[in-house]
Amino acid sequence: MNPFPPSSLHFLVVVFVFAMGWLTHPMQALTVESDFEGASVRVMHVDAGSQTVQFMPGGDPKRGWPCWWCFRVEGLDPRKPLTLQLHASDLPMPQANGVPSNKPLSADWAMPLRASFSPDGKSWKKTPLGVRAEAVMTYTFPVEGTSVLVAWGPPFTPSSAAELVRRVADSSAAAEERELCKSREGRTVPMLRVCEGDRVEARRFGIWVQARQHAWESGASWVCQGFTEWLMSDESNALWLRQHAEIYIVPIMDIDNTATGNGGKEALPQDHNRDWTEKPNWNEVAAAQTHIREFVKEGRMDVFLDLHNPGAKDTKAFFYALPDELVKEPMLGNRKRLFSLSRSEVGSVMPMMDGPKYDGPKYHPLWRQMSGTWVTMNGNPHTVAVCLETPWNIEQSTVEGYKAVGAKLGVAVQRYLEEGPKKE
């Protein structure tokens, strides 16, 4: 006689199978990995049971703001969400705004409203809105597998820059892969030169586009990639620009800090965008100056674009530029035209301010050593040299959103040059 009714037997079988599942798939150790390019993290505590990682941004404050973070979590149970508890860095900064300091960096810079995550390092998504309690931000989101990459924003590494430059150069005779220079730590700084058709160089507009003078501002490199991919597209205005201009593109200027996961901004002795002097500390700045001087010597330093990301509370794209009173005609009028065209084009894909913000003497004690100032002061009378800041803390701050900004910036530059900058 069977001591168990059929329903009880069914229940026991289910329990047995469920238990065997746990035995054959034991809980993995939850680990944090950061032994790869661009990674940065200070792990505080890992709890496998609740699938929670408590951490701070990594990075050496002497090498810039410790706000960038990027790491991989392994050993995940995909049936449970992952929780990240981000604490502000407690390391004192050696300097702030060019003067000595011993205070930690504000938590705002390290804590996007939504973090970025990816199962494969190729496609990046945003987490739901984080929950902030004073200096701790908590992100909770579902995972699809046993491993996930998490980051402050979608990473763009030196390998990404090399792949972009090589891919474009391999796909078109109009593009040439070059090396801007070797960095202080011996890394190659990838650069792309684009020039199509038989128009002599002396009759071409000169354009210089660079990104990432501050290593943590990864969105700037994605804007640069969007500009580059648009430039090499079949669109008629992109074709016109390739045939009427000589364009240099540097996706990452601060290559060393980007590779090592350091912030770059306010690095010692100064960051790349405070290094534009007659004797720069950084090899990338010195090499860029050499190319720009050649354009100036030939009277065709037409457009200089420096791509950045701004502060956490900036929700619209905008240009930084020298105050109007420090700029003469025809430079001033040319600049206003490019601003207007950019508002029309970029504003169609991302919110953009009606006018620029001004740097100059009131912005930073080293304002004369910033790239836009240096190019303005050392360029041709008609040169337009500006910095585009693309927000990183809004819903559109994605790979796709950044690239759309870069493409529309390219359209604005083409329209400006086709209309003809004033030179007298």
From TrEMBL:
Coiled-coil region: none
UniProt entry keywords in alphabetical sequence: Carboxypeptidase, Hydrolase, Protease
GO molecular function list: metallocarboxypeptidase activity; zinc ion binding
GO biological process, one term: proteolysis
Family label: Belongs to the peptidase M14 family.
UniProt cross-references to InterPro entries, sorted A to Z: Cytosolic_carboxypeptidase, Peptidase_M14
Cofactor(s) for this UniProt protein: Zn(2+)
Active site per the UniProt annotation: E389 (proton donor/acceptor)
Protein name as annotated: Zinc carboxypeptidase
Peptidase M14 domain: residues covered: 154-412
Pfam families attached to this UniProt entry: Peptidase_M14
